[in-house]
Backbone:
């Protein structure tokens, strides 16, 4: 469970990102593909829809950081679906790095050490649930 102060930091900075959501999503995917060009094959051709889904998913997750257990079934399902799409465990680290980079670009000077730490904790909490489901899904296959 994240400390309330970190949850507040994630939520307040997310509110600052929302007005530039599509630009942030473009930056994010651009960074993912720059860091690992082969990741592009994991996505369809409609990146506008993918960007929208990313931002919607993050918005739901940010809103529920203080009650992640309510999101657990959805996050586990997402983790299992990602395996079907070809996502591998190392992609979670790539996505986390791209997310932090994107937030730094969008928030500028507002991306302080405490903000970075809060986002690292938030992403780790979400990714841990998804990774666990992905790994159990891989063993079951």
Residues:
């Amino acid at each position: 469970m994240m400390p309330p102060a970190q949850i507040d930091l994630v939520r307040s900075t997310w509110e600052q990102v929302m007005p530039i959501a599509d630009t942030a999503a473009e930056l994010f995917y651009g960074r993912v593909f720059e860091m690992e060009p082969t990741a592009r094959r994991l996505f369809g051709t409609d990146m506008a829809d993918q960007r929208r889904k990313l931002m919607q998913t993050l918005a739901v997750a940010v809103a529920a950081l203080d009650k992640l257990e309510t999101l657990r079934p959805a996050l586990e399902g997402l983790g299992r679906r990602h395996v079907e799409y070809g996502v591998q465990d190392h992609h979670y680290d790539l996505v986390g790095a791209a997310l932090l980079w994107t937030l730094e670009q969008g928030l500028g000077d507002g991306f302080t050490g405490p903000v970075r730490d809060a986002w690292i904790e938030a992403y780790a909490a979400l990714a841990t649930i998804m990774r666990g489901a992905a790994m159990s899904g891989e063993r079951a296959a």
